[in-house]
């Protein structure tokens, strides 16, 4: 070709194709350039897609793999390329752009995007406005210790510990429960008939503890007599 022959004439003279001679004239391509020629997208287009994926991820709508493939397919169709992407394209795309590999959602994660309908977003905004309108001011939210109601008094235990009375004081105490009577005449009850013991317990609630002890010592008392005594205790 240095002697003024065209590529076509030189190729015919040396018995090779014109395309082969043309590639030899241009020189061999670098590995990176030859790889770019085999890709469906230009590097600038892939950078745009990576930025779009990052923006969607920040907005809480990380796209799924089918969504990325559909987006790229629409770009190719606008450029006149109507061929489908290969089944391995998305994997090769992630290998070339690993920074977006973790941002492409799975089927579970992409449910957030499908569930973010216009109605749900509008309802969420209205709810946020209502919460903001009903929120307390900082001044109202301040807690004034003086305005707080007094703390409720600590209630004493239901069964307070018993205080042993002296012999001089015990005569003025009156049993209030069956437990009081049982403790007062516990030494006299073991050999007493259970029904008769119950009569004495009921009677002793209206009698002095000392009288209950005396009544308990009289084990041979008959049931009718105890009943009469109970009736007499109820009379004013």
UniProtKB/TrEMBL annotation:
Residues 33-103 form the HTH CENPB-type domain. The keyword ATP-binding does not apply. Keywords: DNA-binding, Nucleus. The keyword DNA-binding applies. Pfam families: HTH_psq. GO terms for molecular function: DNA binding. This is HTH CENPB-type domain-containing protein. Residues 1-34, 107-165 are annotated as: Disordered. Residues 23-34 have a biased composition (Basic residues). Residues 107-116 have a biased composition (Low complexity). Residues 149-160 have a biased composition (Pro residues). It comes from the Eukaryota. SMART domains: CENPB.
């Amino acid at each position: 070709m240095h002697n003024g022959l065209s590529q076509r004439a030189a190729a015919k003279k040396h018995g090779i194709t014109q395309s082969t001679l043309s590639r030899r004239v241009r020189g061999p391509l670098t590995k990176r350039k030859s790889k770019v020629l085999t890709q469906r997208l230009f590097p600038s287009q892939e950078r745009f897609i990576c930025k779009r994926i990052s923006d969607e991820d920040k907005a809480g709508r990380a796209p799924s793999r089918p969504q990325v493939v559909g987006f790229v397919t629409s770009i190719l169709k606008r450029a006149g390329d109507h061929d489908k992407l290969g089944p391995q394209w998305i994997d090769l795309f992630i290998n070339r752009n690993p920074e977006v590999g973790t941002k492409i959602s799975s089927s579970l994660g992409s449910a957030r995007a499908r569930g973010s309908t216009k109605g749900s977003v509008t309802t969420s905004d209205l709810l946020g406005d209502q919460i903001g309108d009903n929120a307390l001011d900082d001044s109202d939210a301040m807690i004034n210790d003086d305005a707080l109601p007094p703390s409720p008094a600590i209630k004493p235990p239901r069964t307070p510990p018993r205080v042993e009375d002296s012999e001089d004081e015990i005569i003025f105490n009156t049993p209030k429960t069956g437990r009081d009577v049982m403790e007062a005449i516990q030494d006299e009850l073991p050999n007493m008939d259970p029904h008769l013991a119950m009569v004495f317990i009921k009677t002793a609630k209206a009698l002095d503890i000392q009288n209950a002890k005396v009544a308990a010592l009289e084990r041979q008392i008959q049931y009718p007599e105890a009943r009469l005594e109970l009736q007499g205790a109820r009379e004013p």
